[in-house]
Amino acid sequence: MKNDLTNKLFLITGGSKGIGKAIVEKFYESGAKVAFTYNSNQESAEEIISTLGNDTSRVKCYKLDVKNYNEIEQLIPQIEEDMGEIYGLVNNAGITKDGAFFRMQPEDWSDVIDTNLNGVFNMTKAFGNKVIRRGEGKIINISSVSGLKGSQGQANYASSKAAIISLTKTLAREFASFGVQVNAVAPGFIATEMVDAMPEPAKKKINSMVPMKRMGESEEVAEAVEFLASPSSNYITGHTLVIDGGLTA
Ligand code: NDP
């Protein structure tokens, strides 16, 4: 019963691949109804639905750019009309545009902040007013260990992820009396396309730095997000759960 998400509707951003895809699949397996978004990968989003058995009363995908507040304001009522009241939100969508600070262009900074941080603001703003009126719900934000420790070559990304942790704590305080928990996860190196794009020697170096000597799997992040979405975590709010094989220990 504890991790049972049966019939609760979750909205998951960036569900078309990587960690978001694993969260969509895990939540579906746990009995949830899932509305997830893609930005450019419509084909892979539709493939996920077909792999899950094409039950569109339980899983649907929608195109969304989290940078666009107007799109979000229209999407949320649309999802609720299609699938029912949204119980929880997982802010997963994110990008990187890495580079040493002195070479980082202003647009590299603003693209990452707009997507990773303003995207979380936009989604939470549009959803938050509804959920606090309902008196129960969960918001889970995907941060990163880069947001805890800083990360060379990722001034934009690390800043966006650190701000998400602060936003999580603040919203946890503001939403607590409305019965809504707000938590974050901070993954370390997880084997997704984002990390796959790195050269082999860089990947080897990462593995040697991690006390558990391997990268994490998307499914391992999804398990932690599921916990924070479930009744098992009902007295936890404002917390950032680190999933990094001991990297920041
Ligand atoms: P991927 O690049 O594999 O997936 C990113 C997802 O975000 C895709 O579904 C993509 O949609 C979506 N997306 C990108 N830009 C936008 C946008 N403007 N609006 C809406 N959706 C968008 O990333 P990961 O799975 O690796 O990462 C997922 C989250 O986890 C991110 O927040 C990332 O920062 C965080 N994270 C990842 C780590 C890792 O090691 N991989 C470590 C720590 C944190 P589409 O494909 O349709 O364009």
Topology diagram in text:
Layout: E1 9-12, H1 18-29, E2 33-38, H2 42-51, E3 59-63, H3 69-83, E4 86-91, H4 106-134, E5 137-142, H5 146-149, H6 155-175, E6 180-187, H7 193-196, H8 200-209, H9 218-229, E7 240-243
The chain binds NADPH dihydro-nicotinamide-adenine-dinucleotide phosphate (NDP).
Domain Ketoreductase: 8-193
EC number: 1.1.1.36
Family: Belongs to the short-chain dehydrogenases/reductases (SDR) family.
Give a structural overview.
It is a single chain. The chain has 249 residues and is of the alpha/beta class. The chain is 47% helix and 16% strand. It has nine helices and seven strands. The protein has a seven-stranded parallel beta sheet, with helices on both faces. β4 (86-91), α4 and β5 form a beta-alpha-beta unit. The chain is globular. It starts with 8 loop residues before the first strand and ends in a 6-residue tail after the last strand. Pfam families: adh_short_C2. It comes from Pseudofulvibacter geojedonensis.
Under CATH, the topology can be stated as: Rossmann fold
Small-molecule binders here are: NADPH dihydro-nicotinamide-adenine-dinucleotide phosphate
* Low-confidence runs: none
Overall morphology: globular
Question: What's the architecture, going by CATH?
Answer: 3-Layer(aba) Sandwich
What proportion strand?
15-25%
Secondary-structure element pattern, one letter each: EHEHEHEHEHHEHHHE
Order of the strands making up the biggest sheet: 3-2-1-4-5-6-7
Q: Give the name of the CATH superfamily.
A: NAD(P)-binding Rossmann-like Domain
Structural class: alpha/beta
Beta strand count:
7
Rounded mean pLDDT score = 96
